[in-house]
Amino acid sequence: MQALYIGLTLIGISVYSILKSRKTVQPLDRAKLYLKKDKTSEAIKALNEAVELDDKQYEAYKLLGDVYYQIKSFDKALTAYNKAIKNHKEPIAYFNRGITYVSLNQLDQAIKDVTTCMNTYKGDKNFIYKELGYLYQMIGDQNQSKNYYNMVMKTSA
Question: What is the CATH number for 21?
């Protein structure tokens, strides 16, 4: 009898998890549709709904950060990227948060995040090398800047 109870409990937990993720996906999908139609405020509402349903929703937080960045709400973008990274250590979220730090003139933090992206990203890193070259140029470190720009040249050849 106890095995049956445990089995039913596990099935109940699985069904609950599936239903919870479906509820989250719906607002996320709506947000993506709104963004395709340039309806930013509606997309933000849908993304906020998604994270209210599941506060561990990486994709919704990352997309929310992207939207806030596009409308130049950099503090809100930073908050969203922080939550995305807390839930999932995705390299592109570090890159995007780094770019947000540039907009807030926090170049040391930007370099740290873009470097984290470089160290964990599995694809073509040219866009990362270019950004690091630019960031080091902005802080006056011409040697590091040159090193990253040379890396771009080597991988592009």
Answer: 1.25.40.10
Residue 94 lies in a domain: no
156 and 126 in contact (C-beta within 8 Å)? yes
111-120: long-range contacts at Cβ-Cβ below 8 A with a sequence spacing of 24 or more? 111/135, 111/136, 111/139, 116/91, 117/91, 117/92, 120/89, 120/91, 120/94
Contacts of 59 (CB under 8 A, 6+ apart): 28
Domain count, the chain: 1
Paired tokens of 113:
């995040």
Domain-located, residue 72: yes
pLDDT for 55 equals 86
Distant-in-sequence, close-in-space partners of 146: CB < 8 Å, separation ≥ 6: 133
Q: Which domain holds residue 81?
A: 2-88
Q: Is residue 103 part of a domain?
A: no
Residues of the chain with pLDDT under 70: 1-25, 157
